């Protein structure tokens, strides 16, 4: 049984309505194993389905170049919601791929932990995969004696780099619970707010406190900033993914660094990792002007200080 709702019939109807003949299907690695039926359904209805084998890191990472190169007239993007409105270079259908889960046990576990921590009112956030369960989960917490709050404007939906759903209600809650798998999104919330953050993980049926992880990541972040103050040359990485390209911030950083007597080089890169950065031996520190999480989540793999734009602001105060 597929644990995600890929809404096959709706996708096929939308593809047929657009008259698409060649469709590129894009999905995160964790969802690629479930696209078999979608491919077969589209092929049976007369549309050639081609699956992107490249990594997919979010709604900011749409496979437009790949789709254009293979002549696709439609992109089916699975697992995320639209990141920026009106920016589709190729017509795109977004399939949230909601996770099918029974949250009753998880809600009781979460409520028990929150009570032990003295939490009376909690803010709830999640990703698009669990948005349909967030109010159900909140109701279950309320039945266990925990008040809950969900940001009305966003419906509680967060992204790795967009955390306003938590920030807007921070003053009204004692702590936050992220409903979803892994620590990536929960950590984003923990780094953005001053309240404790817990992960209610429906994949593992467990609740985790992110306090130790937050402390570890912040320590590495400040190490990177302080080490970068010693650098005389900087590589400013302009991430070329559709939703991450930020030319003006990169140019401004170059001007600011040069104004402090530093050398700054602009580097365009789609896939940002140490393997791609290491050849720039003349660069002593890097600043990434794309996703702010690249530097935070991969610091251990980097051989030199790597900062994001927020880190760079702190750096400029110290050079």
Q: Can you describe what's shown?
A:
The protein has 319 residues and is α/β, with parallel strands linked by helices. The protein has three domains: 4-97, 3-Layer(aba) Sandwich (Rossmann fold), CATH 3.40.50.11840; 104-209, Diphthamide synthesis DPH1/DPH2 domain 2 (Rossmann fold, 3-Layer(aba) Sandwich); 218-316, Diphthamide synthesis DPH1/DPH2 domain 3 (Rossmann fold), CATH 3.40.50. 37% of the residues lie in helices and 21% in strands. It is built from 13 helices and 15 strands. The longest helix is centred in the last third of the chain and has 18 residues, at 211-228. The mean pLDDT is 94.
Keywords:
single chain; 319 residues; alpha/beta; Rossmann fold; 3 domains; five-stranded mixed beta sheet; four-stranded parallel beta sheet; 13 helices; flat
SSE diagram, text form:
Layout: E1 4-5, H1 8-18, E2 22-26, H2 29-32, H3 36-44, E3 48-51, H4 64-70, E4 74-78, E5 92-95, E6 98-99, H5 104-116, E7 121-126, H6 131-143, E8 147-149, H7 164-167, E9 175-179, H8 184-192, E10 196-201, E11 206-209, H9 211-228, E12 233-239, H10 247-259, E13 263-269, H11 274-277, E14 285-288, H12 293-297, E15 306-308, H13 309-316
Helix pairs in contact: 1-3, 5-6, 9-13
Strand percentage, roughly? Answer: 15-25%
- The poorly predicted ranges are none
Shape: flat
Q: How would you spell out the order of helices and strands? A: EHEHHEHEEEHEHEHEHEEHEHEHEHEH
Oligomer category: single chain
Name the average pLDDT: 94
Query: How many beta-strand runs?
Result: 15
The CATH topology annotation of the largest domain reads as: Rossmann fold
Helix content: 25-40%
- Strand order across the largest sheet: 8-7-9-10-11
For the largest beta-sheet, the strand count, sense and barrel status come to: 5 strands, mixed
